[in-house]
C-alpha cells in the first residue's frame, strides 16, 4: 500500500502555506511569507513538489530551471522531509519525480549544492544519479541589508556591463558565452580588462539573488573590485544577496571575505548530465 503521494505544487495560497510550514519545520532557511512564496510559485520555471500522507504535507523539494551551457539545468534547491517520515524513501521519490519531469521539459543537466556534512541529502541525490563534481568548495554569500550604493572603483577604473554573455561575451574564451548570464567587466585606468564575473539571477523559495557562476581576476585588488561590483549590481536590481562557490584553497575566498562576503560552510556540487 502506498503510504504517501507526490504531486507538483499549485500556484495557490493553500500550497504556498503548506510549503512555508514544511520549510520552517525541516530547513528553516526562508524568511518568505506564504504570500511571497505564492508569488514565486507563479513565476515561469519554478517547480515545487510536495509529498502528502493523507492530508499532511510530509516532504517538499523546490526546484527551478536555469540557463546553462548547452541548454537548461534543473536546480534541485530545497529538499526537506519531516522527522517521522525520514528513511521511508520520500526524499528519493521527490527527487526522482523532479528529474523525470525536468528531462521531459528538456533539461540537459541537474545540479544540487549540498553541505559536506549533510550525508543524508548527498546519498539521496547520488541514488538518483547525481555525482560529486570536484572538491568541496566554500559557499560565500553577501546579504544586502539595504540598497544604498557604495563607491568601490579605484580612480580611473571603469565597469562594463553585458546584459547577456551569450550575445556579447568578453574576448577571453568560449566558456564565457553563457546564455542568460549577466557579465560585469572591470577595467583599470589603462582600459585593460583586469577582472570579470558571470552572474546568474535566481529566485528561490528563500531569496532572490545572483549566483556568481564564473570569476576571473589578475590579482586580489581586481578580484575585490569585481566582487564589490556584483554586490552593487545586485543592489540596483533590488536583490537579497550574492553567492559564490570557491575552492577551499582558492585565495579569492579570502578576498571575498574582506569584501563583505561571509562563509556559509563547505559544500559539494553534485551534477547529472
In short:
This protein has 273 residues and is α+β, with helices and mostly antiparallel strands.
What does this structure look like?
- With 273 residues, this protein is an alpha+beta fold.
- It is built from six helices and 13 strands.
- The chain has helices spanning 13-26, 34-41, 90-105, 119-127, 220-236, 251-258; strands at residues 5-8, 46-53, 56-68, 71-81, 107-115, 131-132, 137-143, 158-162, 182-187, 193-203, 208-217, 241-247, 262-272.
- Strands 1, 2, 3, 4, 5, 6, 7, 8, 9, 10, 11, 12 and 13 form a 13-stranded mixed sheet that branches.
- α1 packs across α2 (34-41) and α5 packs across α6 (251-258).
- It starts with a strand and ends with a strand.
List the helices and strands and how they pair.
Blueprint: E1 5-8, H1 13-26, H2 34-41, E2 46-53, E3 56-68, E4 71-81, H3 90-105, E5 107-115, H4 119-127, E6 131-132, E7 137-143, E8 158-162, E9 182-187, E10 193-203, E11 208-217, H5 220-236, E12 241-247, H6 251-258, E13 262-272
Parallel strand pairs: 4-5, 11-12
Antiparallel strand pairs: 1-2, 2-3, 3-4, 5-13, 6-13, 7-12, 7-13, 8-9, 9-10, 10-11
Helix pairs in contact: 1-2, 5-6
